Amino acid sequence: MNLTKNNGRLFLYFMSMSEIDMFNYLPLAGSFAVIKCEGKYLMCYNVWRKQWELPAGRREGDETPKECAIRELFEETGQMVSDLDFKGLLKFRKVNSGEVGYNPVYFTDVERLQPFIENQETSKIRLWDLKEEIGHLDELDIRILEYI
Known about the structure:
Keywords: Hydrolase
Largest sheet: 8 strands, mixed
Radius of gyration: 14 Å
Number of strands: 10
Strand content: 35-45%
Pfam families: NUDIX
GO molecular function, one term: hydrolase activity
Organism: Sutcliffiella horikoshii
Protein name: NUDIX hydrolase
Distance between the termini: 23 Å
């Protein structure tokens, strides 16, 4: 059975919009990169949280939300893409503080995966069909996949 964790953030809803409109919603948190391959979704195993999740992370310096998604995808999974399509914003609430935030979500479909190199954060990657039992998953990631 797949078990979910919320890691201190609760899903509120997913907002479809144009990429330029996302800047009307603040604060913008880190970006997600959703990759589809062979009809399944790329998941990476986070060794710190001990769960499967979508590639995602915080922006660094002056990078755009899209640049963040592309970088995080590469750092966590070894996958290099030249472009991602903006799908919308995930709105969430932090459990402890009640603070609301927004995660930009990007998507692309690829023909095949590139080789994975284990790193500090990610021990393995896999393609997931949304049904197979794979263990612990992040609640927010499941909700994102429901909207993509």
